[in-house]
Amino acid sequence: MKTLKKSFTVGLSSLTVFAVILSGCGGGKAQSDGAANPSASTANPSAAAGGTSNKMEGGTVRVAMSTEPDNLDPYLSAATDTNAMMDNVFDGLFEVGEAGTLTPAIAESYEVSEDGLKYTFHLRQEVKFHDGSDLTSADVHSSYAKLAGLDGKEPLSSKFSAVQSVETPDEYTVVVTLKTVDAAFLSANIAAIVPENYEQQSTKPIGAGPFKFTEYQSGQKLVLEKNEQFYDKDRAPVLDRVEFQFMPDQNSAVLALQSGNIDMVPGVSAQGAAQLGDTFNLVTGPQNMVQLMALNNTVAPLDNEKVRQAINYTIDKDVIIQTVAEGQGTKLGSNMSPAMAMFYQEGLENYYTPDLEKAKKLLSEAGYAQGFDLAITVPSNYQMHVDTAQVIAEQLKPIGIQVSIKQIEWSSWLENVYGNGEYEATIIGLTGKIDPNEVLGRYESTYKKNFYHYKNNAYDALLKQARTEMNEEKRSKLYKEAQKMLTEQAVAVYIMDPSRTTAMAGNLEGFKIYPVQKFDFAEMYYTQK
């Protein structure tokens, strides 16, 4: 038997977490040569050492969020910020730990058959949903049937595409049988388990997580309250309430933190951090994110590989990191952060060194010696992406590419760009995952949200082989080949993994950085001032 007492490393062992107080000059910067800064310092030794002698019970954390939820249903949401907020409401069979390992949640143990096709999960018996009903194998069956499309409807998650059947021998045992060996399947089991036959998740979500949904007012706030019946006493929250207030303008959010009207602001710039000074608690670290300029591979002239390569040879990522991220970013060359150390292909970050003459030559060979017009669409509420677009617009001028920047609302970006693929170029940040298939599978021709419109049979075959390869060394080699293929064909411009700083009230402690976008409020608490 394999049990969850054993940790499952998924290639994120190099994810270095910092807990630093930023100085006026924005210290704690990551290197821009493709390697995260391995050192860290702290100006709060007691918090760093886990000291909790002054821990207070209860309290409300008011969090400034730049975007609103796109959908409260965990199976229908595509926005990372939504998932970060609602992750507190839902639990899966496993949870993601700080080091990118799978830790026990609703499942207390599991077994895998010798052929790797059958997974047997044994559930905790004391888990209840927020409505007071017991969580049993029937709920897992119903949840997985939706995700895998076993209910006769369209599958809701590609991560469950290998699932052939789900059986429930008893109330607390679930047996999942796969069609083929799937090396990525274990990590898929962090998916939310929701009540069977409950159809109001989009308006009144119910889960089994440490906090329960209370209220959502569009344009104003999303409110969660402590789940008094949470099954895991070691993870039981101390806070009474979390209130997400929607504030698209970061400057306003920082001012609200300074005035005491907000307690936490995720994603503060170095300038904002310096403005706050040392009376606030600031935590910074790598995100396992890929900021990129996606290129629509089916729209002329971006359907020409030489044009895409010319763009890559023109853009200076180091300048973007120094100006937009104020030095706090790790240069990338593929759709993967070095945080995923086991699978990351080193060296690709320097594959395209700025070379205007080479770029002009490639454009000429492609038939665009005089350049062309290019529209870059960016979500207006993400200032970093807007600023990046402005820098890129200037950098592309010398080779004759005239850029127009189109700023649209986040909801429109999700629908038109991400959902429908209606754009020429766009700048966005893709958050990290704990399995490389989730990161690189975004480029498979069969992936419904492949908004790059990249289609390559050789790439598809490579990903298929990697997903069924259980030997980690061989699997790593295949994913490295896939990264190289994307880079050589210039499917996108891979820019950086920007460091993220979260600013909090000086007496708010317990914030942790994970290799996925996650706000773990069950771990947070106030201390006496």
Automatic annotation (TrEMBL):
Tree of life domain: Bacteria
Keyword Signal in annotation: yes
Amino acid composition bias (Low complexity), ranges on this chain: 34-54
Signal peptide residues on this chain, from the entry's feature table: 1-19
GO terms (BP aspect): peptide transport
Entries under InterPro entries matching the protein: Peptide/Ni-bd, SBP_5, SBP_5_dom
GO molecular function, one term: peptide transmembrane transporter activity
Bilayer-spanning residue ranges: none
Classification via Pfam families: SBP_bac_5
Keyword terms, alphabetized: Signal, Transport
Renumbered residue ranges of the record's region Disordered: 31-57
GO cellular component terms attached to this protein's record: ATP-binding cassette (ABC) transporter complex; periplasmic space
Domain Solute-binding protein family: 102-448
Family: Belongs to the bacterial solute-binding protein 5 family.
Name of this chain's protein: Diguanylate phosphodiesterase
Organism field: Paenibacillus albidus
